[in-house]
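Worked example (supplementary).
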Amino acid sequence: MTQTGAGVTLNFRDVGVADRPTVGGKGASLGELTRAGIRVPPGFVVSTAAFERFLAEIDPQGSIRRAIEGLGVGDLPVIAKVAEGVRARIAGAPMPDDLAQAILAGYADLCAGAGDEPVAVRSSATSEDGAEASFAGLQDTYLWIRGGERVLHAVRDCWASLYSAESVSYRLRLKLPEGGLAMGVVVQRMVNSRCSGVMFTRSPLTGDRSVIAIESSWGLGSSVVSGVVTPDKYVLSKVTGEIVKRTVSHKTVEHVPDLAAGGVREIPVPEERRDAPCLDEAQIAELAGIGKRVEAHYRCPQDIEWAFAPDGDGGERLYLLQSRPETIWANKEAKPAAAPKANAYAHVFALLGGAKKS
Amino acid sequence: MSANARAFLLPSEIRDVPGTEGWESMYPYFTRFRPEDDKVFWFYNAMHFPEPMPAFDVLTAEIPYQGLGAFTTRVFSFPTTLGIDHRIVNGRVYITAYPVTDPSEIGRRLALFQERAGFYYQNWNRLYDEWKQRMLALIKEVEDIKVPTLPEFDDIEVVTSGRGIGQNHYVRETYHRCVEAFSKMWHYHFEFLMLGYGAYLVFFEFCKKAFPEIADQTVARMVAGIDVFMFRPDEELKTLARLAVELGLDGKLGDGSNPADIMSALEQMGEPGRKWLDALEKARHPWFLMSTGDGFYHHHRSWNDDLSIPFSAIARYAEMLKAGKSIERPTAALKKERERIIAEYRALLSSDEERGAFDQMLGLCHLVFPFVEDHKFYCEHWFTTIWFNKLREFGALLARWGVIAETDDFFHLHHTEADLALQEVSLAWAAGSAPAGRGYWKPILTERKRIWEKLKEWSPPPALGPIPEDIADPALQMLWGITSETLAAWARKPDAGHEHELHGFAASPGIAEGVARVLMNANDIGQMQDGEILICPVTNPSWGPVFGKIRATVSDIGGTMSHAAIVAREYGMPAVVGTGGATKRIKTGQRVRVDGNSGVVTILS
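After joint prediction of all chains, the assembly is encoded as:
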């Protein structure tokens, strides 16, 4: 599948970082990874153009835009009230037929004739890195969605999430123009992770670029990301591959798909798995190898979400669910560890000369 | 820190081991703890002295510390550190380092240090070449010492050459020359060593700043040489194994007989046997002069003195060859890997400025490391093996005169007592009388040997006295792995729920599980069985060949640049060093897991 419905949906295979303005950051990143040969669960992006079409359809006069732009920055009760009204309007409006057909076709393509496969539906914002970081939590993600109608509903819910009170206040505070508002929506096959977690290709603790830090826990990655569990932790050298630090934690809960209701539910981890590591040595090495590849591809340290899931043949496969540039240490001013001196042994004089160690 | 200030016993609180009363008489008066020593922090030098000291062997503490301190305190004038003091309690050597803290004093010393150390760094290769010549000459000098046998009548040459000096004079002279040569050797040993450590420490600190989570062992790998003496003895064993297979002799080597029987069987075989024995003879000198210890105890014999260690290794290598396995040391691959690691870390640095500093510091390490790595073979192995054997000739002389019961009893005399006993024998030889030593020394030595055995039962605390605020001595950190963190860990009781875990330095990567064997004595290394995990006070580089058949090593003491750590990395065998008390907490036969990546040892059963 390539482009259908006049650019309404785009397969990951056909998207790269340059497409960020039309598919959003998350969609662009997943497309870029797919193209780089990294295994990500297959999926497509509902483009920003689709959202614009939808908005034009339900609000040809631009009344929503004017209503939002007329709000006062600090006027929270009014913001909440207006935002709620807009969301109701979006939820109640029918999906234009051409959009619906394109999205349903994309979903059918993902299911590949295997019935209603579960997917994740996530918003994919187009705003810049820094802003996105703080924006991320403001937009919705719907997991374990099955069936075309539910997918359409979730896409609309993602769009509606742009009009949550938090999201609206945020735009008002930053004076972001409503005219430029755009959002892609990612529709992606779910993987039923045996274990999952995050990986930083530099140390989150010290910023050390020579190490990779991995956190892992049982089940779906939402348990690690949301912090409801203390994950196992590994630090390994990017250069030698050796694990320099390993902490196997007591993991009490895990997130599993709620197949009946959709979404995830939290269940206790069975006693015998609580203190067991979720990854073996080969899996840790595989993860680190992928981390290095992704970092090399983007030429900067990455913050990655990953999962190991059954491959259907009794084995397991590693999937990347997301990769974005690491932002915390990237924005810190680093002091050089040392500068060259007149001669090599002058460094010895400096160190042994009683200078205080920093 | 203050919570830990009283974590260790004070020297004055140490009690005698019951049944060893009077142990002090074996050691010089100046090695005893004094009341004011309670104010000083001491740690047990288990690295060099893992066993109680025989009376003679205290020379291997006294003389090295004379040499070390001469160069740090007086010759190079290290700015922040003077020398090392030692004390002996219950037979164990405790040491302390004296820091310089007064800024003006540091400044004064730094000016001298820059001039003096600078000269050595600048002229390093020339001076090191000269060092090797001096060292080889010193070894030859000791080898050539002719220890008098005091026969009934002196040699005719005394008359015909008109020498004019009777043989008993040379007892005194040669004995003193032996002691003096040992002192010179240790001065040579420290002439370059602390400067070498300084260069390493600079690079280490830089790496830790640029890459805060880099493993110590990875820094070490960037510095360590590939073609170093340490691996040469093992290479000789491989060469002998190859030759044995080529000549079809491998069956003879591996039949479990003692080396003397194997050698006489080979001798009787004619041509192929003799060819192999010739090759063996060539390899023995100097490459079999590897001590099973580190040259600090007379009873740690060398491969050359006990051929069973090299023979069993040769047999094992021959077996591997027959089985089609490679025994080659992949030097080219090791070099390439080292270059790759260096290049990748270099590329990860944040600026060309950092890369410039990195190049300078690593370049200096590569300049000084050939000495740091090779000196030990020259000094502790080659020289010291010959030296102890030369002293045995004096022991044999005293034994022949009935002053001591057997040759090695000599080493239960302090070196000044040995001097006295030798003088008395010289006197008796001249007088034509029986030495009084016959009645005097034997009961004393019997008692000392009993006490010495008994002292082995004592578990010395890893440290004594108040923990200092900051420990930043390069040698302490590099060799003994002693930092403020180690001390805090030593002082800590095992956490509840973690009693089965020990923490040390990750010295060589990998994870291994197996049955533990606790070895307190270096000579027992032959007891290790295939697949076992070695638990010892301190690992030794000469154990390399055994490393091929065991799964992992754990030691009480040692840093990541200790020779054992380097050799373990080379053999690809997981190692955790500096655990503080593995030999106490682990028992032979227990299953343990050794994580050489994180430095954790877990007792599984």
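Two points are worth noting when inspecting this output. The first helix of chain B runs from residue 59 to 75. DSSP finds 20 helices and twelve strands in chain B.
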